[in-house]
Amino acid sequence: MHGSDSLPWPRSVKWLHIFLALFITFQLMSELDMKAIWKHVGISAFRHFLFVSHMWVGMASTLVIILFWLVVAGNAQLRAHLFPYHGVYLQRIGKDIQGATRGIFPPAGMRGGLPGLVHGLGLLAISAMGASGVVMFVMIYAAGGVKPGDAYGIPHAIHSLIANLVWAYWWGHIAMALLHALRTPRILRIFIP
Fold first, then answer.
1. At what angle do helices 113-142 and 45-73 cross, to 10 degrees?
2. What is the dihedral of CA 83, 181, 70, 92, to 10 degrees?
3. For a FRET experiment, which of 45, 77, 96, 132 has its CA 20 to 30 Å from that of 157?
4. Can you name the CATH fold of 11-191?
5. What pTM was estimated for this model as a whole?
């Protein structure tokens, strides 16, 4: 349900959200059991397959993230939703927190507030994850698929740190969406382009 203060999601955002939901979920799940292709002793081929799949799906995820940023750049309402740092969009954050303490969820759609702030932070987190992943991808292939040099540790550490934030975001996003859907099933229309 869209409140009087929210706008419906553009079709392009719905499609990008679907792709991100699928790709990021795959990325998080695959990293649980994958092993680097340069680790050979006692490692199953499936775990190497997960690593290579993680790299290529990561590249596809990064392309979707870039497309998402292009849509954000061209849509003032979407920018205001994702980065509600001024005006009424900022004021809604406080109202949303007050409402949440009383079990009231904000309406679906683009309206800024707490959901917009959280969505924007999630987009920033997966963007950093994608950027560090691209650097790692290039370093791995430049090294011919063997373990890259010591410099590889820098993007790997950043990628691993941000992965923890993305895991927390992923669980929180799903939990809040399910709670919201129990009260207002229309929130799931983000998955219907």
1. 130
2. -20
3. 45
4. Fumarate Reductase Cytochrome B subunit (1.20.950)
5. 0.88
